[in-house]
Design brief:
4 domains, Alpha-Beta Plaits, 437 residues, 3-hydroxy-3-methylglutaryl-coenzyme A Reductase, Chain A, domain 2, alpha+beta, 4-stranded antiparallel beta sheet
């Protein structure tokens, strides 16, 4: 029987590992060694990582790779990606090469507004609330001036505050629905700080509002928080080429385009397929978002919500074939930053942004969207031609060989063998055993 521990956060990381090892890992020496072998010998770097979060035991590595040759709006990028899935970077690089010789990717930011909300309960007369809001709005804006000064210097700030009646959703529920411009920062702290100040001011001013009766003066603030659903912070990525340039694996360009369209129509129509189709897009998006120190959970949540904006979950990407031209595109929301947060703290995020030539947040939105579109194109292309497993298993081969603890020489021989043979777990195991024996 395990007893709860108190004061865990105050233990040193050695003590934490000691406790963990005794309590959950049967005092396993190997487990302790594994946890400690990821400590960085550079103590200040180690400390930096430990201070990103609480109760850190060790560091968790992900591969940090590069997909070169991305031509985006006529500029050539090498895109850093942090991802563990074997075939993703290879697929992105292939798609980059393919579209690089067909005019490259075009990307455009269609909007940059972010949203935050103060959720509150008010049970009184709604017209009086409207009147109060009109009166108090300038005071709300005034109350955040110490917070907005710097943001305004950079061209951002509070764009608007609206009072929204949400009583059709929930009895007595209303919102201050606020829009913000946060320029190159993702803006979460800025937005949340402004919202909390709005909430305090709104609640305090209500108490002395002459038109409210005693119960109306008691507005209950439930919470103040940004929304990760940002349908007005949108980027569009697109590729296009003559259909004739799509011939692949013995398929004519016309046949390829027609099959690609069918695959997209299925993803548009059928949610099970749409989720997997969009997961392929997120393979590219998350990897760049993570490499650049941005919040991939926020981006994931917002994009999937957008995929169901019309009431049914559907494909994020779309295709059109007209007058002999193939056009493949997607519009997605995302709130990213290139200053603040982890972007300036994590040494690898800093390098990632340097590799991307110090992009603005808008530039990064374009790069990320393009990577998602490239990934999606590569996945659908494989699915409708060779099938996904050929590429996947080729890339997965090294994982299988590592599981089998193959030596460098064995790896060389087996990688060579599987250049011309179908990779499956059992086939690799069989060849490996043959070679060993
Ligand atoms: C695998 O990580 C992603 C795919 O399943 C995407 C897709 O099916 O389009 C290959």
């Amino acid at each position: 029987m395990i007893n709860p521990i108190s004061g865990f956060s105050r233990l040193s990381k050695e003590e934490k590992i000691e406790w963990l090892s005794k309590t959950y890992l049967a005092n396993n020496k190997k487990a302790r060694e594994i946890l400690t072998q990821y400590w960085n010998s550079n103590s200040s770097l180690q400390q930096l990582h430990e201070e990103f979060t609480e109760n850190t035991l060790t560091n968790y590595y992900l591969p940090f790779g590069l997909a070169p040759n991305f031509l985006i709006n006529n500029q050539l990028y090498a895109i850093p990606m942090a991802i563990e899935e074997s075939s993703v970077i290879a697929a992105a690089s292939k798609a980059a090469k393919f579209w690089g010789s067909r005019g490259g990717f075009k990307a455009e930011v269609l909007g940059t507004q972010k949203i935050g909300q103060v959720h509150f309960m008010y049970s009184g007369d709604r017209e009086k609330l409207q009147y109060f809001f009109k009166k108090v709005k300038p005071q709300l804006l005034e109350a955040v001036t110490p917070l907005t000064r710097n943001m305004e210097k950079r061209g951002g700030g509070v764009v608007n505050i609206e009072l929204r009646d949400k009583t059709d959703l929930l009895v007595n529920y209303h919102q201050l629905h606020c829009t913000f411009e946060t320029k190159d920062s993702m803006g979460a702290n800025f937005i949340n700080s402004c919202l909390e100040r709005f909430a305090e001011t709104f609640q305090a001013e209500a108490k002395s509002h002459e038109a409210f009766d005693a119960s109306e003066k008691e507005i209950e603030i439930v919470m103040s928080i940004l929304s990760n659903y940002v349908p007005d912070c949108i980027v569009r990525a697109e590729v296009s080429c003559p259909v004739t340039e799509l011939a692949d694996h013995g398929m004519s360009g016309e046949d390829f385009a027609a099959k690609f369209v069918r695959a997209l129509k299925i993803a548009e129509a059928e949610p099970h397929r749409a989720v997997t189709h969009n997961k392929g897009i997120m393979n590219g998006i998350d990897a760049v978002v993570l490499a650049t120190g941005n919040d991939f959970r926020a981006v994931e949540a917002g994009i999937h919500a957008y995929a169901s904006k019309d009431g049914r979950y559907t494909s994020l990407s779309h295709v059109d074939v007209r007058d002999g031209r193939f056009r493949f595109w997607m519009e997605i929301p995302m709130a990213l930053g290139t200053v603040g947060g982890l972007t300036g703290l994590h040494p690898l995020s800093k390098i990632a942004l340097e590799i991307l030539q110090k992009p603005s947040a808008e530039d990064l939105m374009k790069i990320v969207a393009v990577t998602g579109l490239a990934q999606n194109f590569a996945a659908v292309k494989s699915l409708i031609t060779t099938g996904i497993q050929q590429g996947h298993m080729k890339m997965h081969l090294m994982n299988i060989l590592n599981q089998l603890q193959a030596t460098v020489h064995e790896k060389e021989v087996l990688v060579n063998h599987f250049k011309t043979n179908k990779v499956s777990h059992s086939a690799v195991e069989e060849q490996f055993n043959k070679l060993r024996n």
